[in-house]
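Here is an idea for our session: we take a single protein and study its fold together. Start from the sequence, derive the backbone structure tokens from it, and show both lines together. Once you have written the record down, we can walk along the chain together:
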Amino acid sequence: METTTAIDPAIAAGPQATSRPFARIRRRLIAVYVLLLFVLAASVFRLIFTARDSAFEQALRHNQLLARVLEEHLARTYGEADKVLQGAAEQIVAGGGLEKLGEKAVHELLWRRQNRLPQVTAFGALRADGRLFALGTEYPVLPVDMSGAADFIHLRNDATDMFFIGNMALIPSAKREPIHLARRIGLPGGRFGGIVRCGIDTEYLVRFYEDLAIPPETVLALVKPDGKPIFRLPAAEGLSRLDLSNTAAFKDGRPAAHRGHFEPHSPLDGRALLVTYHWLPDGGLGVFVGTPMERVYADSDRFALRVAAGGLLIALLFGAFFGMILRNLARQEKLALHQRTAERALRESEAKYRALVENIPQRVFYKNRQLRYLAVNRQYAEDLGVPMADIAGHDDFDFHPQALAEKYRQDDLRVMASGQHEACEESYVRDGKRLTVSTIKTPVRDESGEIVGVCGIFWDVTEQIGLQERLKESEARLRAIFDNVQEGIVVVDAETRRHVLLNPAFCRMLGYTEAELMALSPPDLHPPETHSRLEAVFRNMARGIHGLVRDLPTRRKDGSVFYTSVSTTAFAFDGRPCFSGVFRDVTEIRQAREALAGSEASLRDAQRIAHIGNWELDLASNKLHWSEETFRIFEIDPQGFGATYDAFLALIHPADRDRVDAAWRQSVEQRDLNAYDITHRLLFPDGRVKHVREHIETHYAEGDVPLYAVGTVQDVTEQVLAEEEIRLLNETLERRVAERTEDLARANRELESFSYSVSHDLRAPLRAINGFSRILQDAEEFALSAESRDLLGRIVRNTNRMGELIDDILDYSRASQAALERKEVDLDECARAAWDAHAPAYPAATLRLGRLGSAWGDPATLRQVFDNLVANALKYSGKRDTPEIEIGAREAAGYKEFFVRDNGAGFDMQYAGKLFGMFQRMHTDRDFPGTGVGLAIVKRIVERHGGGIRAEAAPEAGATFYFTLSHGA
């Protein structure tokens, strides 16, 4: 068989061809050296500029941190001082103002508050005219006119509740120039009552700043929102002339932002500064921190010098390194000539095995140490689509894409470096199709054992790889389904009964992790009473009996039990018999089923108890469906009932049958839902009669075609009989009411006659006894003995009392008999009229009258209620130095309750039951005069208005009478 060997063109061309690549390499090395010098220079400049940027950012962060610390300290300092000022202002306002409190009281108030804070000095107060009123450090003070002070002018004109921060200025009796802080004294009605002010000691601020160990060149300033600095460290003259409002920290005369920075020139000291500013949360003061730009870039400038020196040193090292490479290249050029001879001998040996490698199906190649092809077999050349003669002397970059050729090169270098053969898989695209080959590469050694190249053999495994990938994709799809299905899936070893596979849904269902479930067996997941059932399921699966296990109790990790439906099957998994189960949580379905069964049972019970049945009539088939209770009402055996409309009509009493049928047909024809709401009778074979009430609703299809009717039937026999009995009773009752009305009218006439007799027949002899006794007292005053005069006095008093009793009896009679003319009554007017009538007799008495509202009742009798209760309250509290009467109303348990309360003698509640009886009294007539009829009259009037009355009291603790009126009163 003829073989072909690829010859390196460089070897065939001789020494001149061999030297040309070395010349190109030298030119390239020189170009690379120049490029490296350029990159080095660019890197040096970049490092220098990066260092300057980093220095700027570091200084900026340092300034921001310092500004935030100073802001927080300043906010706390001013906040504490303002809190003290606010407390002083509120206490002065509560005391009525500065003049009302007096200078000494204000001095003590300021002195106590000034001692609370170390940063506060010169605590003082100015009057509304601007004169100094008091100081916390001295007493008394001269009333110096300070009406021109900025804080006084601002707070006098601005009525808002905000504190004012002023500039550093001398305050009388202060040894330093503090920063002013002031608050307005706002009197009631918006009146200006002066200001309270204090100074923030700048020495206190300086000590805090010194404790921070701030670099001496750092500039700190406190700036107001108008751009005017009020404090600077280090201190500088002319601070009041400075203005920062034209810097980047301000916009349109106001702070531009809560925080920020600007540079390079700052009006703080005229130098180039990096200035960072933070404003207090209320925007009343800003903290400005400045660092000189030479300080900012000092370290970066030193770093730039070091980087430049390092870059120069690296350039020199690169020069030395490339000089060594060029010298080594010259030596390699000499070695190439010697190598040519060795390669000639290699070609001769190559012919010996070429016949072998040309005929094997695998692709074979051989590369030299420079990774240029020395030989390939025919199959390899055909794969490349290049003649074999055109392959030798070339490298992979001539035939493959850059990335693939680089990979081949790295693989070859690794094999030659390790001296070991290596198997790998490689992919490439040919004719638009990606191919995968399996390659074995082996280092090639010469006679001395030195590695002189690499040999490789590979074959196409694209199809095998595709099969493996499709298998992986199939497994991935199955795994995705397995992991994402909502039902829990579990696989159990048939012999060991241990879990071998679980999906996430099963873990979530039981609340376990997969590792925890793998350590458990199926019996661990179910209550003990289900284990025998579970074992039976396993035995059935072992015999090939599969199916659905319903309502299997399953226990979660937290101990709770739910119900599952499990589909079981047996199969082989990894070569061993296994059982699988698909779990579905059916707890809600089971609960719904149980609830439905319970609801149906409850419905049957409810129908049975209420004697209400339901039915449905299919109008197309004339089929009638009755509930159990309907059958009980009609007393029919369900098995013997024809279940048709005609069968139903046959059960109705003959006298009612036509009426029922007509009502049913009318409801269907007129679509009137109320047409068939009817009560009729049922006639039973034994002659008994039942009364039932039925209601029907008919449902229609399109075109007003009736489809079916649903209805209810209720046994109303007892109601009908009861109504009949009630009707008879009502007739009897009406007759008895008429008789009783006549008796009552006759009794009222007799009572009126009695009242007339009491009013006239009893009063006449009483007036005579009283009159004759007074005449006898006047005529025989000196003739009678003392005992006789006393007896005559008793007669007069008792006749007077008898007259009062008669009057009270008549009043009680009128309260019981008088007709009530009901209208809207203003109860507030009734209470006020009762008070005006009785209060003049008790000039020391006071009244608290609440809102009573109005009520529907008789005006005259309701006025008498308040008149009796107010008179009673004044009488029993009249012995107090200051009788106190309260009349009011309150909501209690859904109704309105009125009350009259006094602070009088009160009474013992154990006798409260006798309080509202006729002539019942809790005190003797000597202590409190009266007949004991007033409260009985009140009770009678309230009861006639549909209400009630009660009392609460205690001895010597007053009494309260509560009464209600009905809503219709």
